[in-house]
Amino acid sequence: MTTKKLPRSSIARPKGAQVKKPALQAGAVRVAAIQMASGPNVASNLAEAERLIELAVGGGARLIALPEFFAIMGMKDADVVKAREAEGHGPIQAFLSRMAKKHRIWLIGGSVPLEASALNKVRNSCLVYDERGKLVARYDKIHLFGLDLGNERYQESKLIEPGDTIVVINSPFGRIGLSICYDLRFPELYRAMPDVDIIVVPSAFTATTGRAHFETLIRARAIENLAYVVAPAQGGYHLSGRETHGDSMIVDPWGVVLDRLPRGSGVVIANINSAYQASLRKSLPALQHRFIGTPQIDVLEAERRAPGKRDPDK
User: Fold this and answer.
1) How confident is the model at residue 17, as a pLDDT?
2) Active site includes 131?
3) 58 contact partners, CB below 8 Å, separation of at least 6
4) Given Cys at both, which of 60, 157, 235, 283 links 30, Cβ 3.0 to 4.6 Å?
């Protein structure tokens, strides 16, 4: 078998830069993953996200994904709780809807802090908007990160209330399975997604765990599911003192990294080709050869509703 040469790494694009467009193959669609190093100021983060979305749109992307907690990486947990929103209300969600509608794109808000049942916690929610600016799906992060290396400790359960439902969306680009960051370590989550074509993994991996495992896990999820993986990430130093790994990437169903960005704010962009994916699945029908079933868990298959008679976007 011939080994494919990995593409050269992307670099962070300064303001005013253009994203190089990969040649668009017949039947393919262009997708983008955005990398940020967000801080505690929501307005500033949204302004940076808007700039990067515009870069991705300029590169021809029709499906764009933002990283985990793109709108706020707080100095402390209380900052995130203060910024939480009720579903359907608040400046972060209004921003996502406006960007999707303005650019006529599908936009995945990597994760947004939404209200939880506990007053001192949030739901870490991945929100998906269609080209009309309509919310079509919400996934609440199931697996909560915990790490204790002595001098480096994290316990997401102090801030985040976990979800309990897997979410798959029927989109114009194929069936999209949603996940967030630490979910990546649990392959049974993805095995439970029926007939998924694209996996999205918005992340804020620590520098320590990211260096050791991020690329390996992303490529493994692509290979074992014969799926494209779109992985937007936080990547850099944050005002809180935290360092995130970055290395946002888009990986094809054969495990080839199509584009990546090691550090800093920027955009990675690549083509998703359903015909190529179908040919791989025909040549290597591993998904049909599965023998061990997955545990029963609720799976929500989201469908975009057709515009109603009073819908102004009809």
Assistant:
1) 52
2) no
3) 18, 19
4) 60
